[in-house]
Every structure is written in C-alpha cells, then in structure tokens.
Amino acid sequence: MFQDFNLLAGLTAVENVSLPLELDGVPAKKAHAAGMAALEELGLADLATRYPDELSGGERQRASIARAVVGERHLLLADEPSGALDSTNGEAVMRMILAACKRGVAAVVVTHDAHLASWAERVVFLRDGRVVDQTVTPPSPESLLATAPKP
To answer: Which CATH fold would you assign to the domain 13-138?
Structure first.
C-alpha cells in the first residue's frame, strides 16, 4: 500500500483492484467478483465504476488498500494506510488488514496513529532509524487457563 495510491488513471476502481489478480492468472470474472467484494468491504461498491480522478483522496486510498489485500498474498507492506481517512474508515482498513493476517498474511504497517498501532500483535517503536522499544500482545486469559497445571 502506498501513500500516493498508485491507481491507474485509465482503469475504474474495480478494474484497479482486480488487475493484480488477473495478472496472477485469475480469470477476469472471478477477479472482478473478488475486487467488488473488497471494495464493498471498504464501503466503495457504489463507486466501483468511477475512475481515480472521480474519487476523493480517502476513496482512492481505500481502493488502493482493497487492491493490496485482495487475492492470496503472503506479505502486506502498508505505509500509513489510514493517513487520508477518518476514524471510521481507518478502522475498517485495520479490520481488513487484521482479517488478512488471520488468513495467514504477514503484515507490516507503518503508522503514527497509536490507536491503529494498538490493533497489532507486535509494535516496534523506531526513533531516528533505531529500535527504541517494542511491545507484544499478552496472551489471552483463556490461554493462561489452558496451560495452567491441573490440581
């Protein structure tokens, strides 16, 4: 995911989202359906046939995010994925990224937004290019019960 979206001006939103799938060999009809599903998840289904210059900055950002997470990817690199979004759409993006992680996608998200960083299993803090701290999500209370010795 890029901060400047990198959508192709001559393609509609759904064509931009489905193009990588088609380049991976997915049949056009199946790629289009997956593209529409990704756009719908981010509230853009009604704008699927619009071109990038007909979309707002936030809509372009969500379309580029849909393009990044659609399909069977193994790694997702995201630089400020919620930078041009309001809090509601930013959370929708993080839900989509989290869902991709639950499917086995590894994600690296760069953000200055502490709320969005709190969604991560691990947060690494950098200052002047150096790691200065990190956090790891503690195990759930249920996991502690599962490993507790039996009386």
So the answer is: Rossmann fold (3.40.50)
Residue 102, number of CB atoms within 10 A of its CB:
8
Q: Is the predicted pLDDT of residue 25 greater than 60, yes or no?
A: yes
What confidence tens digit (pLDDT) does each residue in 76-118 have? 888 888 777 788 888 888 888 888 888 888 999 988 888 888 8
**Rounded distance, CA 121 to CA 136, Å?**
6
What are the residue ranges spanned by the domains of the chain? 13-138
Nearest-angstrom CA–CA distance, 114 and 78: 15
> Do the strands 106-110 and 75-79 form a parallel or antiparallel pair, or are they unpaired?
parallel
Any idea what DSSP says for residue 150? P
Average pLDDT score, the chain = 86
Report how far residue 52's alpha carbon sits from residue 61's, in angstroms, rounded to the nearest whole number.
Answer: 10
Helix (H) or strand (E) run with residue 128 in it? none
